[in-house]
Amino acid sequence: MHTHDTHEQHGHGESELGNRYISEHYYYVDIAPYPTTPWGKFSRALKRTLRGELFVGLWVVLREMFKFDIHTVQYPKEKLLVGPRYRAVHAMQRLFESGTERCIGCGLCEKICISNCIRMETRLDEKSRKEVSEYTINLGRCIFCGYCAEVCPELAIVHGPRYENVSEQRAHYIDYAGMLTPIDMAISGEQKEFDGFGAVTPHEDARVKQTPLAY
Amino acid sequence: MDMAFIIETVVKIVVILLVFSALAGFGTYFERKVLAFMQRRLGPMHVGPYGLLQIAADGIKLFTKEDIIPQNVVKPIFQIAPVITAATAFMAAAAIPFMPSFTIGDYTVHPIVADINIGILYILGVMGAGLYGPLLGGLASANKWSLISTARAAAIFISYEVITGLSILAPLMMVGSLSLIDFNTYQAGGIGNWIVWSQPVAFILFVIAGFAETGRTPFHLVANDHEIIDGFGTEYSGMRWGLFFIGEYANMFFISFVTAILFLGGYGDGSLLGALGLLLKVSFLFFFFLWTRAAWPDVRPDQLMWLCWKVLMPIAVINIVITGIVMMV
Amino acid sequence: MEQHITITIDGREIQTQEGEFILNAARANGIFIPAICYLTRCSPTLACRICLVEADGKQVYACNAKAKAGMNVVTTTENILTERRAIMEVYDVNHPLECGVCDQSGECELQNYTLEIGVDSQSYSIKDTHKPAQDWGLIHYDPALCIVCERCVTVCKDMIGDAALKTVARGSDAIHGEYKANMPKDAYAMWNKLNKSLIGPSEGDVLDCTNCGECTAVCPVGALVSSDFQYRSNAWELRSIPATCAHCSAGCQLMYDVKHTSISNSDEMIYRVKNEWNYVSLCGAGRYGFDFENRVAGKDEAAFASALKAFKKADTIRFTSTITNEEALILRELKRLHGYKLINPEAKALQDFLGAYGTVSGQKLYRGDLKKVHESDFVVSIGSALKTDNPNARFAMNNAITMNKGAGLYFHPMSDPVIDGMSKNVLSIVHAPLMEEAALYLMLDLFAPKAQLPKAIADYLAGFHSTKTVTIEESVKEDVIEKVMVKKLNEATGVEEEVEEEKKKSVTKKVSKEVEVDENALLKLLSAPENFKESLDKLLAKKERFSLMVGPDLYTHPNSKNLARLCALVEKHTPFELVMIPSLSNSLGVALICPLDDAAGSYAIGYNTQGDFILSALGSGDLDMPSLNQQEGTLTSIDKRVNPTNAALAYHGYELNDIANALGLNAHYTIDYTPRLGEVEGYLALSFDALPNHFTNSGEEVRGYLLESLTCKAEGEEVAPIRLEAMEGPMLYLANPVLHFSPFTNAAHQLKSSGALYASDAFMQRYGVQEGDTVQITTPHGTLRVAVARDGKIEGEIPYLPTFDTNLNSEALFNGYRFSTASFQKV
Ligand code: SF4
Ligand code: SF4
Ligand code: SF4
Ligand code: SF4
Ligand code: SF4
Ligand code: FES
To answer: Three-class SS of residue C322?
Structure first.
């Protein structure tokens, strides 16, 4: 076994930058120089044959079999917790309190989507406002780049923690109803706000130039 | 030939076909389970209790899947190749005594389809002919991976035929017969009589050659997924691919039987215990195939050739010479 | 005539014409000067002031300052940049931040200039006012978004001629005094004006106009938008297909904006129509009548087979002029191969008219076009209900009169308040039907040098004149001197005193006088107003460029051949440029391409019209055909231009070309016939893909090609005298209401309506009918029961029946000529 001291030896000449991504627990395998003489080759083969490494391997797996220390997670019966910053299948947010849909149908997400998988329909509603009548994302094509969430001026479309995308169809869509936070959840404040892409940055106020709002 | 003999033979053939086809299926199940456990996994769990019906699911899948014949293949050869693999595997089984003879009423059944006196030669020959499966399948597939696989198959099989042949030459000299039943009888005296003790080198060589002949890890070069996809099987689908598969697993069983009979005393004295012993030995050998797969890496093709011609072949020859000298002395 | 001069803009020497606005000169040469309120072809309003430039060291407005030889223009100086920045800041004051939902977003000039100028902070503010949005039918106005550039007002007045919009009071607080002192000057002046006004209808609360929608096209922001399109799609999702309007002979260039129908339906549909409003103005039919496509699921083989059977059996093809030149050529070829009679009465009338015209002029086609009308300063229209027959001819007349200080005469039996409303310099002569000959003789009489005219005609004209002694009352002005006492402030003392002052005063006295006057019997025939002669003299003062437009009333007139020869004489002997208004989209093309017949045979195929077997792009026939927004091809316009049009929507069925191929012709696509148009005199052998369809920055129309001059043999200048009597009594006219031309306009969802008898208030009063009542119309040719609809845009007592509604067989009530005597009975 080699400690990371060995790594120091092997890592000669590598800049700080080159080492940056290497964990301190990594170590380099000691690779002996390749034998060049026939005798060297023969003796290496002999050594390897007689050292019984093969049997070590056999022993290790046999041991594990009998230990029966199984690590399988039996999805979908059991599910792992996803990290709090995990962002996948989209969700559509509502405004707090009023529960009004945040999406105003500006179409920026549709425009920016690099895999061209968003389509929406808008119309004039009874209150003479722009209304999103239907909105879909083809999850079969979405590459979860997050651009849509980033561009949304209303913080309406966000990536939620849902990651299950299984479908019998290659093109698998989610529709507006499927994405919208249920209204009771929005009103009761259960809707989650997400950090990161598409969220207000904490220092946003300071960055907006002051405009005279005397009235 | 009397009627009873014909009926007996047909029944034996059918039983062997059915049993070993089924065994090939179970073999895959065990392989997955064993590999999984050794790798801290569970293996198939969803179809049936503990995934037991996975074999049925696979069977249904293989049978119902579309048989795709790609555009540029040489159609008749492409179609026949998997049959060759499966057929030669089962044909080899004809000369293997699976069990001691037993009687039903007053009729004595010999659990061997054809007790020919050159059984071993026959098995070696038929297994050698099995080479044509991967060879033709790969050549006909119009696929570069398949072609590479074919080249490897030809090289490996031909090389290791030599090892197989040479390695059992020494035991043959000792037994003085080519019939497997004679081999069994030769070792009937108990564990101490097993040829493995007198011919350990031959035993090891034979097992290594067996791995090569069946194309199992560490010699899984013919269909090495990470470099040549499924090798000669790449273009195959449905039941045709399934035949290759059955052939491979049946081969594993037969090699296990042959090894057990040649070196590990076969069914011994022919008692029930001896029969069970044979099954146990075969099971262990089969398990060993799986075990190595979990534990060992694959070697490179050149290493394989190197091993064959520069290491194993000389050793086998030396072994024969020594055996000869010992027998003479 | 035009003088080429050289000016320098930002160090670049460019060529332009004397008197051209600096802005236009710059644009033609690809130099960018920001400008918001200016519309090419209309008068500068100086509302935005952002086009400030420095010409020879002086700040001027580029849209208003004319180029002079050797002028040196600088487009940016420090001061100009400050002004521009301040102007854009002012535009952004209180502008709602609703780009996210605004229909204009993505093509909004306010967005563009705000970004271009780089406005990232706001220095000005004022209390906002409440400005609720207004719904004006086809048009939606949101004053909150309006930047009061007045482009809508300008275009409506200077181009369209309705003058239906004006600025109204905004009711805002005064701008804080501090700004006046500190702000850049022009920005303040612009704000001051902006802060006082909004846009509103000229009369009443709701817009009442001819609904051309041009104001929505020119509006730089989302203030004026189409109600139908509102919030349906973002501009950038739409794909623009350049095409040629299919509805009338003006052949306007337009863009069909298409996108998938919905999430689940990927078939494209047309969402709206756009135009290059700086260079071409659309009418409402073109703008709102875009979805007249014929959607079919696929090829109906059974119908096709029976069509072929019908073609084998037929000896006649009836068709209308809403087809492409290529289809017309196919029909011609079919006639050549199979001897079909080609029947199209309306195109035939034009064909005969052109033929008769050629016998005098030696030209197969008139000399003028609408561009020349735009440039002229005296426009005469005879024999056309201009407003509806060809809206663009009306725009041209209006534009000429308003922009060139022009004047015009409008001869038509129906008086039209829209025409009268163009300018007080338009004189309408409401003559009786059938008197069009008198109008043309009057033109000769007034404008042709008698010596130049053939003797017979000169004599005939002289025969109308007589002298008469009349007593007239004349007003004479006399100056009298009066003494008056006025109160005045003694500046030295500061005390107010009474001072006697002498004042000159002019007094008008009436004097009776006997004078000899020339009496023109032609004027009487035309029921011209009493003071026609004097008014005309006034209108004609300082006029240099003359245009005459004649319309379909002449082609269908019983004496149409004589009228045609008269037109040729007018064109030959007077300074007038002649334009003939073809009655339908491609009447001119059909008239030039197809050998048309007078009498039909026994079994007729009808293409978009009646027949024993009907091919129809309206979806109502025996075999479906693609409509003009689903076809590639060319159309021949009033300007003698062969314009290409593209298929905006897919068509999955059979087209005429398929039938033609089955009948022995051979072409893969219909547009394979485009180069073969070269076989027709006047057309060029150019392939479809070689035809451009756009305007350049200088406004040059780069579309298709112009028909080459077509000469023929002139046969002499004899014309027949007026023999027909004026039509008298109650009468009926055949015309379409505003926004309609043919069944195709009626297929559009925004325009769909059912045909009625369109009548003025005077008519309704006289017959005691209300809107919606049914009347029975009886003419010598038939009777019809139909509902009455009010048309506020006509006057007089002649109502009209439309042709756009296939449920009304209006033509059956007429005998070719567009007028008929009729009696009306309320039922
Ligand atoms: S995450 Fe990216 S690919 Fe997916 S919908 Fe949004 S913009 Fe499109
Ligand atoms: S960017 Fe946001 S507000 Fe705009 S359409 Fe997409 S989800 Fe709606
Ligand atoms: S008019 Fe222009 S700037 Fe104003 S909301 Fe609409 S797109 Fe935005
Ligand atoms: S409505 Fe539009 S075009 Fe008219 S003044 Fe306002 S911004 Fe200008
Ligand atoms: S629609 Fe046309 S006529 Fe009506 S206000 Fe607008 S520009 Fe004027
Ligand atoms: S464009 Fe010249 S003042 Fe507006």
So the answer is: coil
